[in-house]
Design goal:
Layout (H helix, E strand, L loop, with lengths): L4 H15 L5 H15 L6 E2 L2 E2 L6 H10 L5 H8 L4 H6 L4 H4 L1 H15 L9 H11 L6 H19 L1
Antiparallel strand pairs: 1-2
Protein backbone atom coordinates (compact mmCIF):
# COMPACT_ATOMS: atom_id res chain seq x y z
CA UNK A 1 0.00 0.00 0.00
CA UNK A 2 1.33 3.40 -0.99
CA UNK A 3 0.64 6.91 0.20
CA UNK A 4 -2.81 8.43 -0.31
CA UNK A 5 -2.66 10.76 -3.33
CA UNK A 6 -4.38 13.65 -1.57
CA UNK A 7 -1.97 13.46 1.39
CA UNK A 8 1.08 13.12 -0.85
CA UNK A 9 -0.08 16.19 -2.70
CA UNK A 10 -1.05 18.19 0.38
CA UNK A 11 1.96 17.41 2.58
CA UNK A 12 4.77 16.74 0.10
CA UNK A 13 4.22 17.83 -3.50
CA UNK A 14 2.47 21.19 -3.04
CA UNK A 15 4.76 22.44 -0.23
CA UNK A 16 7.85 21.39 -2.19
CA UNK A 17 6.72 23.16 -5.36
CA UNK A 18 5.84 26.28 -3.35
CA UNK A 19 9.25 26.16 -1.65
CA UNK A 20 10.93 25.95 -5.08
CA UNK A 21 8.66 28.72 -6.42
CA UNK A 22 7.45 26.32 -9.14
CA UNK A 23 3.87 25.70 -7.99
CA UNK A 24 1.02 25.12 -10.42
CA UNK A 25 -1.91 22.73 -10.64
CA UNK A 26 -0.27 21.12 -13.68
CA UNK A 27 2.98 20.55 -11.80
CA UNK A 28 1.07 18.92 -8.93
CA UNK A 29 -0.88 16.68 -11.30
CA UNK A 30 2.24 15.68 -13.20
CA UNK A 31 4.19 14.73 -10.07
CA UNK A 32 1.23 12.75 -8.72
CA UNK A 33 0.98 10.91 -12.03
CA UNK A 34 4.70 10.22 -12.08
CA UNK A 35 4.60 8.83 -8.53
CA UNK A 36 1.58 6.70 -9.44
CA UNK A 37 3.22 5.40 -12.62
CA UNK A 38 6.67 4.81 -11.23
CA UNK A 39 5.94 3.30 -7.79
CA UNK A 40 2.16 3.03 -7.31
CA UNK A 41 2.44 6.04 -4.96
CA UNK A 42 5.18 4.42 -2.93
CA UNK A 43 3.88 0.86 -2.72
CA UNK A 44 7.43 -0.20 -3.60
CA UNK A 45 10.28 2.25 -3.14
CA UNK A 46 13.22 0.53 -4.80
CA UNK A 47 13.86 -1.59 -7.83
CA UNK A 48 16.40 -1.86 -10.63
CA UNK A 49 14.99 1.28 -12.32
CA UNK A 50 15.72 3.58 -9.40
CA UNK A 51 14.96 4.87 -5.94
CA UNK A 52 11.88 6.22 -4.24
CA UNK A 53 8.45 7.42 -5.30
CA UNK A 54 9.71 8.59 -8.66
CA UNK A 55 12.17 5.72 -9.42
CA UNK A 56 15.14 7.99 -10.04
CA UNK A 57 18.34 6.17 -10.91
CA UNK A 58 21.66 6.99 -9.30
CA UNK A 59 23.32 8.03 -12.56
CA UNK A 60 20.39 10.28 -13.43
CA UNK A 61 20.52 11.84 -9.96
CA UNK A 62 24.26 12.52 -10.21
CA UNK A 63 24.01 13.87 -13.75
CA UNK A 64 21.23 16.26 -12.71
CA UNK A 65 23.50 17.69 -10.02
CA UNK A 66 26.55 17.85 -12.27
CA UNK A 67 24.97 19.14 -15.47
CA UNK A 68 21.91 21.13 -14.39
CA UNK A 69 21.92 22.20 -10.76
CA UNK A 70 25.63 23.06 -10.74
CA UNK A 71 24.87 25.80 -13.29
CA UNK A 72 22.50 27.56 -10.90
CA UNK A 73 24.04 27.82 -7.41
CA UNK A 74 20.95 29.46 -5.89
CA UNK A 75 18.65 26.70 -7.14
CA UNK A 76 21.18 24.03 -6.13
CA UNK A 77 21.30 25.50 -2.63
CA UNK A 78 17.51 25.55 -2.43
CA UNK A 79 17.27 21.88 -3.46
CA UNK A 80 20.17 20.89 -1.21
CA UNK A 81 18.32 22.58 1.67
CA UNK A 82 15.68 19.84 1.48
CA UNK A 83 18.22 17.05 1.97
CA UNK A 84 19.21 15.70 5.38
CA UNK A 85 22.34 17.46 6.52
CA UNK A 86 24.55 14.47 7.32
CA UNK A 87 22.77 11.63 5.54
CA UNK A 88 23.08 13.34 2.16
CA UNK A 89 26.87 13.43 2.38
CA UNK A 90 27.11 9.73 3.25
CA UNK A 91 24.45 8.42 0.88
CA UNK A 92 22.94 11.03 -1.43
CA UNK A 93 20.95 8.49 -3.45
CA UNK A 94 19.29 7.11 -0.32
CA UNK A 95 17.68 10.54 0.10
CA UNK A 96 15.57 9.71 -2.96
CA UNK A 97 13.94 6.90 -0.99
CA UNK A 98 13.70 8.25 2.55
CA UNK A 99 13.20 11.98 2.00
CA UNK A 100 9.97 12.62 0.12
CA UNK A 101 10.39 16.37 -0.28
CA UNK A 102 13.94 16.02 -1.58
CA UNK A 103 12.86 13.28 -4.00
CA UNK A 104 10.00 15.49 -5.18
CA UNK A 105 12.36 18.41 -5.76
CA UNK A 106 14.74 16.20 -7.75
CA UNK A 107 11.84 14.78 -9.79
CA UNK A 108 10.70 18.31 -10.55
CA UNK A 109 14.22 19.36 -11.55
CA UNK A 110 14.37 16.44 -13.99
CA UNK A 111 11.11 17.68 -15.53
CA UNK A 112 12.24 21.29 -15.58
CA UNK A 113 15.54 20.33 -17.19
CA UNK A 114 13.58 19.08 -20.23
CA UNK A 115 12.11 22.60 -20.72
CA UNK A 116 8.84 21.17 -22.03
CA UNK A 117 5.80 23.41 -21.52
CA UNK A 118 3.31 21.89 -19.09
CA UNK A 119 -0.14 20.94 -20.35
CA UNK A 120 -3.31 21.67 -18.39
CA UNK A 121 -3.67 19.73 -15.14
CA UNK A 122 -6.51 17.66 -16.61
CA UNK A 123 -4.69 16.81 -19.87
CA UNK A 124 -3.66 13.28 -18.92
CA UNK A 125 -2.17 12.47 -22.31
CA UNK A 126 -0.09 15.66 -22.21
CA UNK A 127 1.12 14.79 -18.71
CA UNK A 128 1.81 11.23 -19.85
CA UNK A 129 4.01 12.51 -22.68
CA UNK A 130 6.17 14.43 -20.22
CA UNK A 131 6.34 11.39 -17.92
CA UNK A 132 7.48 9.21 -20.80
CA UNK A 133 10.02 11.77 -22.04
CA UNK A 134 11.48 12.39 -18.59
CA UNK A 135 11.12 9.18 -16.60
CA UNK A 136 10.23 6.20 -18.75
CA UNK A 137 11.07 6.49 -22.48
CA UNK A 138 9.91 2.91 -23.11
CA UNK A 139 6.63 3.53 -21.28
CA UNK A 140 3.28 3.63 -22.97
CA UNK A 141 1.02 6.63 -22.50
CA UNK A 142 -1.72 4.29 -21.33
CA UNK A 143 0.57 3.09 -18.50
CA UNK A 144 0.48 6.62 -17.11
CA UNK A 145 -3.25 7.11 -17.60
CA UNK A 146 -4.08 3.71 -16.10
CA UNK A 147 -1.90 4.44 -13.06
CA UNK A 148 -3.62 7.82 -12.72
CA UNK A 149 -7.08 6.25 -12.81
CA UNK A 150 -6.05 3.49 -10.40
CA UNK A 151 -4.04 5.43 -7.81
CA UNK A 152 -4.76 9.14 -8.11
CA UNK A 153 -8.24 9.82 -9.46
CA UNK A 154 -10.30 7.78 -6.93
CA UNK A 155 -8.50 9.23 -3.91
CA UNK A 156 -8.43 12.81 -5.20
CA UNK A 157 -12.13 12.63 -6.07
CA UNK A 158 -12.93 11.60 -2.49
CA UNK A 159 -10.83 14.48 -1.10
CA UNK A 160 -12.71 17.13 -3.11
Amino acid sequence: MGIAANELNQYVIRPTLIYLDRHSASAEALLLGVAASQSSLGAALHDRRGHGLYRIGETRHQTLWDDYLARDPELASLVRGLASQHAFLGGPHLELTVNLRYATAIAWMLIEEQATPLPAADDLLGLARIWRQTFHPQGRLRDFTQAWHCWVNPIMSQAS
